[in-house]
């Protein structure tokens, strides 16, 4: 990473480097993520100078092949997208919905009411991303930004054991950051650059992205300020995923829309700010013991629904539950003989019915002997 140092750029001296480092900008990639406007605010330099520095940083990353060129043909984009990594969910149904799994360099938003499986999905993906590439993983770690205090390492251990993985190694590859307020949540993401590089992070999870903003900015008077802060956060998350080539997964809370008289009144929080920034938007909802996932917004995925279940292995295909039921049913099959015996013997025990049959057969045999004796005489 020596070639990505800030002082390797023309016009960036020791003073500017220190100002940027104090603001959480540690290398050239962080310059691209934060943008010229924010760089100018952080360092006090004019916007024109900040734009020149950011443009030089982008040009250097293009030359090294770390980001795409400014102008390229659709064919080149198509070929590059064939090499984009995906993290398998471990289920056929959700992989079908996501066309192979969570996509890197993209922000996937999952929203739904409580107990619909959002956090369970996040825990499952923490394990899935660590699998080898031939098993659907990326052999990387996870940065888990927990805003609702719902991360449970015990759940990770259970899922890892079911998948045949070492729980201790899985836990070591998960970096958890507990956010206590919206400002802290933004700060964690701004300071995440070194953590992503040092720990080979391939998945960033924010559970949930809007919860703290919703709790702190109350009333219509604070709506504009909240949306500005939230806009900054989700765009920063999206740029980090694209720049560092990792997948971003954010959960979102919902509200009930009172003006909906027919259909589902559930609406995600965050408005158009979150909706426009998310690359893929998925709706989780409960349906008895099963869960339904619906693709709401995507650049190329069809709008469809799939059914999945929550098990010890995290998210799972509903067919797995059906197989378990069939296996349990087969184990009970030997009792059918007793039931048939009860049916043949009426209300008596099957043993009594057998005794009656034996007695009846014994009574018939002497009659045959008497007939034979009479004939002999």
Number of helices: 16
Radius of gyration: 31 Å
Oligomer: single chain
What is the CATH superfamily label of the largest domain?
P-loop containing nucleotide triphosphate hydrolases
Tally of distinct domains: 3
Q: In which range does the helix fraction lie?
A: 40-55%
* CATH T-level topology of the largest domain: Rossmann fold
Distance between the termini: 116 Å
- What gross morphology would you assign? globular
Which strands sit side by side, in order, in the main sheet? Answer: 5-4-6-7-3-10-11-12-13
The low-pLDDT segments are: 325-341, 363-377
Biggest β-sheet strands, sense, barrel = 9 strands, mixed
Number of strands: 13
Class of secondary structure makeup = alpha/beta
In round numbers, the mean pLDDT is 85
* CATH class value of the largest domain: Alpha Beta
**Order of SSEs, N→C?**
HHHHEHEEHEHHEHHEHHEEEHEEEEHHH
**Beta-strand fraction estimate:** 15-25%
SSE order and pairing:
Blueprint: H1 14-22, H2 28-43, H3 47-63, H4 74-82, E1 86-87, H5 92-97, E2 102-103, E3 107-111, H6 118-128, E4 141-146, H7 153-162, H8 167-172, E5 174-178, H9 182-190, H10 192-198, E6 201-207, H11 211-216, H12 223-243, E7 247-252, E8 254-256, E9 266-268, H13 271-277, E10 280-287, E11 290-297, E12 305-311, E13 314-316, H14 318-332, H15 335-344, H16 350-376
Parallel strand pairs: 3-7, 3-10, 4-5, 4-6, 6-7
Antiparallel strand pairs: 1-2, 8-9, 10-11, 11-12, 12-13
Key features?
single chain, 377 residues, alpha/beta, DNA polymerase, domain 1, 3 domains, nine-stranded mixed sheet, two-stranded antiparallel sheet, 16 helices, globular, disordered C terminus
């Amino acid at each position: 990473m020596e070639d990505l140092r800030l002082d390797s750029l023309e016009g960036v001296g020791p003073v500017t480097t220190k100002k940027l480092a104090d603001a959480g900008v540690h290398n050239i990639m962080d310059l691209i993520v934060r943008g010229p406007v924010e760089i100018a605010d952080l360092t006090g330099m004019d916007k024109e100078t900040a734009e020149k520095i950011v443009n030089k940083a982008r040009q250097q990353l293009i030359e090294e092949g770390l980001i795409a060129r400014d102008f390229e043909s659709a064919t080149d984009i198509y070929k590059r997208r064939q090499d984009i990594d995906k993290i398998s969910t471990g289920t056929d149904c959700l992989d079908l919905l996501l066309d192979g799994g969570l996509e890197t360099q993209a922000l996937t938003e999952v929203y739904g009411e409580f107990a619909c499986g959002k956090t369970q999905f996040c825990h499952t993906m923490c394990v899935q991303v660590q699998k080898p590439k031939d098993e659907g993983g990326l052999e990387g770690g996870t940065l888990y930004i927990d805003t609702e205090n719902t991360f449970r390492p015990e759940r990770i251990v259970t899922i890892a054991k079911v998948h045949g993985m070492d729980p201790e190694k899985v836990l070591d590859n998960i970096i958890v950051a507990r956010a206590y307020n919206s400002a802290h949540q933004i700060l964690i993401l701004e300071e995440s650059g070194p953590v992503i590089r040092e720990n080979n992070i391939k998945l960033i999870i924010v559970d949930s992205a809007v919860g703290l903003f919703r709790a702190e900015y109350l009333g219509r008077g604070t709506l504009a300020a909240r949306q500005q802060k939230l806009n900054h956060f989700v765009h920063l998350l999206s740029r980090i995923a694209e720049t560092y080539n990792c997948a971003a997964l954010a959960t979102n809370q919902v509200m009930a829309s009172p003006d909906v008289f027919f259909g589902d009144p559930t609406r995600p929080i965050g408005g158009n700010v979150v909706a426009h920034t998310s690359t893929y938007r998925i709706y989780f909802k409960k349906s008895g013991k099963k869960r339904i996932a619906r693709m709401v917004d995507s650049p190329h995925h069809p709008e469809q629904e799939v059914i999945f279940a929550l098990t010890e292995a995290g998210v799972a295909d509903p067919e797995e539950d059906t197989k378990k039921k069939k296996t349990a049913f087969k184990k009970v099959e030997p009792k059918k003989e007793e039931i048939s015996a009860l049916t043949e013997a009426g209300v008596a025990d099957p043993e009594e019915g057998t005794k009656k049959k034996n007695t009846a057969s014994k009574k018939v045999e002497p009659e045959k002997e008497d007939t034979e004796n009479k004939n002999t005489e």
